[in-house]
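Help needed: design a sequence for this.
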């Protein structure tokens, strides 16, 4: 599909390509929808195999952020950014400060934050060039890393899924297979271990797996073996598109609920999960804790208020299950409809206000 056809298909607003030869910056910023407010979304740094893979990832992630903010009740739109490169060896002050200049040039249409492959320290460097950034250190006036809020929200979503699938929100004795042991997943493992869940983990970075085994008594499998694990809950917490034609028949679980963005490779895979009797918690609903955290920072951060809002993800997930059953929808379509309904109503509100404002301006001109 041609690029502009792809943008028109889901009504993307803007795609910005950023490059700088000296710093080595190769980045893409995507703004999907700003109906509800400025586009907020993290900055991912990943060694993509091709430019096309990077474009596809940022498009999918930006749209997911629009829906995430809408369902979470935030007055924010959806955006995302990616830097093409190895986060373990390609970072530099110049690279992140140059990226910050590109963000500044968008004049507030896009607000960035940390994501896979980026850290508070990276946000500090970006903040030297723009105020349109969140998630830098508390010492510099920010609320810091949003990973704890994300992990707590995922935990609450898993509890809601357990209530729906097993009749109890308790995770004691449940076998949970966690794919990926990054910042969010490691904190999530702490909540799951405290409840007495049996944990199975995997990650492409062996040191992270070893840390989880020692810290939480988890067992481990090779990265590709996680799909074959006999478990109650499969929690994708790495990259997206892991629910696909190659993996879906291998799953041996009752629930899919994890922190990764864009877990379904295509929408039809949500239907296939339902046909297999697997309950799917839409990713942008369950992992909204991070965006709730950074959104609160924009108006004056209060940790207690944030964690209470994040705890409400439990009720939001149950509500989506109810909508899906009532309307005869898959859970991912039920979540989409909830997001799209809010966006459509706000478009109406804003368009009506604009019409009234233009009418008042014309009246003023006519009476002069």
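Sure. Designed sequence:
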């Amino acid at each position: 599909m041609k690029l502009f056809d792809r943008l028109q298909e889901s009504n993307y607003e803007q795609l910005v390509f950023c490059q700088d030869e000296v710093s080595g910056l190769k980045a893409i910023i995507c703004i999907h929808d700003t109906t509800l407010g400025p586009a907020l979304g993290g900055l991912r740094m990943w060694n993509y195999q091709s430019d096309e893979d990077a474009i596809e990832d940022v498009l999918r992630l930006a749209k997911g952020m629009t829906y995430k903010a809408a369902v979470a009740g935030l007055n924010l739109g959806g955006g995302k950014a990616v830097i093409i490169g190895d986060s373990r060896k390609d970072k530099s002050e110049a690279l992140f400060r140059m990226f910050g200049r590109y963000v500044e040039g968008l004049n507030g249409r896009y607000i960035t934050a940390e994501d896979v492959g980026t850290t508070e320290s990276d946000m500090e460097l970006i903040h030297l060039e723009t105020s349109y950034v969140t998630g830098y250190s508390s010492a510099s006036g920010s609320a810091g890393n949003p990973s704890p809020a994300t992990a707590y929200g995922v935990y609450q979503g898993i509890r809601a899924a357990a209530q729906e699938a097993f009749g109890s929100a308790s995770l004691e004795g449940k076998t949970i297979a966690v794919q990926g042991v990054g910042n969010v997943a490691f904190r999530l493992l702490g909540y799951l271990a405290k409840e007495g869940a049996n944990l199975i983990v995997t990650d492409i970075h062996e040191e992270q797996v070893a840390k989880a085994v020692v810290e939480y008594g988890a067992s481990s499998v090779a990265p590709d073996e996680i799909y074959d694990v006999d478990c109650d809950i499969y929690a994708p917490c790495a990259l997206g598109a892991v629910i696909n034609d190659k993996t879906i028949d291998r799953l041996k679980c009752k629930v899919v609920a994890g922190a990764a963005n864009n877990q379904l490779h295509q929408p039809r895979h949500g239907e296939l999960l339902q046909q297999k009797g697997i309950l799917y918690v839409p990713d942008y609903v369950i992992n909204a804790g991070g965006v709730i955290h950074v959104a609160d920072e924009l108006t004056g951060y209060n940790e207690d208020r944030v964690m209470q809002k994040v705890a409400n993800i439990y009720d939001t997930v149950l509500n989506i299950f109810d909508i899906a059953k009532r309307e005869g929808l898959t859970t991912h379509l039920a979540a989409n409809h909830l997001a799209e309904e809010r966006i459509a109503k706000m478009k109406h509100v804003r368009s009506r206000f604009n019409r009234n404002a233009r009418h008042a301006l014309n009246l003023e001109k006519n009476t002069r």
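The chain has 13 helices and twelve strands.
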